[in-house]
Amino acid sequence: MKILKYTAILLLAITSFSCSSDDDSSSTPVDETSGLHKIQEIANDTHVIELFSSTGSLVQGYNHISLRIKDKKTNNYTTDAKLEWTPLMHMSMMQHSCPKSVVTKVSDKKTMYEGDIIFQMAQNETEYWELSITYQINGASYTATDKINVPASSKRTVSSFKGSDGSNYVIAYIAPSSPKVALNDMTVAIYRMKDMMTFPFVDNLKVKIDPRMPSMGNHGSPNNTDLLQTETNGFYKGKLSLTMTGYWKINLQVLNANNEVLKGEAITADNTSSSLYFEIEF
Q1: Which residue in 124, 173, 172 sits closest to 150, CA to CA?
Q2: Are 39 and 65 in contact (CB under 8 A)?
Q3: DSSP state of 157
Q4: Are the C-beta atoms of residues 174 and 187 closer than 8 Å to each other?
Q5: Which of 101, 126, 125 minimizes the C-alpha distance to 113?
Q6: What's the burial of 23, exposed, middle or buried (CB within 10 Å: 0-12/13-18/19+)?
Q7: Which helix (H) or strand (E) holds 21?
Q8: Residues 6+ apart with CB under 8 A from 194
Q9: What is the distance between the alpha carbons of residues 123 and 202, in angstroms, rounded to a whole number?
Q10: What band does 30 get if pLDDT is binned at 50, 70 and 90?
Q11: DSSP 215
Q12: Is 77 strand, coil or helix?
């Protein structure tokens, strides 16, 4: 009888421990912002919209931004919203937007949304960026707007240019975000300025790259490959060879589908730099 009694007590203890453990794990909230840092909050009367990035700041150039919406009354985060955003540069004589993607739900998260914004210019003492976010929750529409901080980048990672075809373009450096002495995967995005508010993707171009080290006799590197699209309305991807650490100027030539140069010049003994380029240093 004592053996049976002790066995029953042991089973009860195991069962209680198992239930307690399950309850504890199920009540622990998942941190969906792990690996992200908050940029800022944009609020209205009903909600707070939290903006995040991998660094916690915005930059002149390409930005991948994550966001979520918190209800002010309940402090709960929205799981089913439809969002759109409009970045707007306020200048003394005019206003304009910049290239941007649609905002989509992060596939493996309940409360997080994401998208890309490419700021082609930085703020200054008199000109500033503002971000307006319009969204729908359960059929109701809301808007939240505030200034955002977009300081000038120390290196050139975005350029606006007028092509030989008369169109205005924006080209932005995306990757590698952490360059290495290796053959790096390189990614850029190219947009056409349709008007001051509209910047669609440009398809069927080619980006020729010629990375050089100006401080080292302007030497280049081997095995670079042109950047091409892998899908319509997509980024341009190729290979960037970096043979040593330091400052690199990535000279660019953008060509159309007929191999006609829209912008940029080849590097020669007499021409040591293209008018279109990116800068990296690592």
Answers
A1: 124
A2: yes
A3: -
A4: yes
A5: 101
A6: exposed
A7: helix 2-27
A8: 200
A9: 26
A10: confident
A11: G
A12: strand
219: DSSP letter: B
Task: Give the CA distances from residue 9 to residues 17, 20, 232, in Å, rounded to whole numbers and listed in that order.
Answer: 12, 16, 66
The DSSP secondary-structure symbol of 273 reads S
Determine the 3-state secondary structure of 13 from DSSP. Answer: helix
Q: What tens digit of pLDDT does each residue of 116-163 get?
A: 999 999 999 999 999 999 999 999 999 999 999 999 999 999 999 999
In the chain, beta strands by DSSP E: 37-43, 47-53, 61-71, 82-90, 95-96, 104-105, 113-119, 128-137, 140-148, 158-162, 168-175, 182-192, 206-212, 225-229, 236-242, 247-255, 261-263, 277-281
Least Cα distance to 240 among 267, 273, 212, 260 occurs for 212
| Sheet order of strands, 140-148 included | 95-96, 82-90, 128-137, 140-148
pTM of the model: 0.88
